[in-house]
Specification:
By secondary structure, this protein is of the alpha/beta class. It has a single domain (33-180), classed as HUPs (Rossmann fold). It has four helices and seven strands, in the order H-E-H-E-H-E-H-E-E-E-E. It comes from Racocetra persica.
Length: 181
């Protein structure tokens, strides 16, 4: 009989995957599934972020990302470089909201076994006050485009016979609004 792996077994399977911290001073940006290069250099890089309570995360939350990825891949000039769940902080007043460390952990468990491109970022949950979505998007822009330099592409300029690397800024999408980085 098959039983689901425990959180400890999951982390033992892949020691490079670290659970998000519960203290801001221990925070790190999860990038273990973030692409560093485009597969199709004719496309523009795109990261998808979902902010929400995720109390709890549901199958539909997971499906929405997959459906968005499929649509974007088939109908746009973008290539998905990663996707993130950003659970809201405990300062968000909502009846029945589970503590943020539980919601972050539920999201981690949901994506680590079911996806090759989704991640969970606890930064929003670690803030001392409720953080508006635009500020959360600025955080992702800072982490992906500024601290990590965007995404590397390889071009062969006219007149040269070797490739060189350049970094391209990513677009970050949340909901139906695109915020250009």
């Amino acid at each position: 009989m098959y039983t689901s792996p425990s959180a400890t077994e999951r982390e033992d399977d892949d020691p490079t995957i670290k659970s998000q911290p519960t203290k801001l001073e221990e925070y790190f940006f999860p990038a273990h599934r973030l692409k560093s290069r485009l597969d199709d250099e004719t496309k523009e890089p795109l990261a998808i972020i979902a902010c929400g309570s995720f109390s709890p995360i549901t199958y539909l939350h997971l499906r929405i990302f997959e459906m968005a990825k499929d649509y974007i891949s088939e109908h746009t000039q973008f290539e998905i470089i990663g996707g993130y769940y950003s659970p809201v902080s405990d300062r968000y007043t909502k009846d029945g909201l589970a503590p943020s460390y539980h919601r972050v952990r539920m999201c981690e468990l949901a994506v680590e076994r079911t996806s090759q491109w989704l991640m969970v970022d606890a930064w929003e949950t670690l803030q001392n006050e409720y953080t508006q979505t635009a500020i959360v998007m600025d955080h992702f822009n800072e982490e992906i485009n500024n601290k990590r330099g965007g995404i590397m592409t390889t071009d062969v300029p006219e007149g040269q016979n070797h490739a060189f690397s350049r970094w391209r800024s990513n677009r970050i999408v949340q909901g139906s609004k695109a915020l250009v980085g």
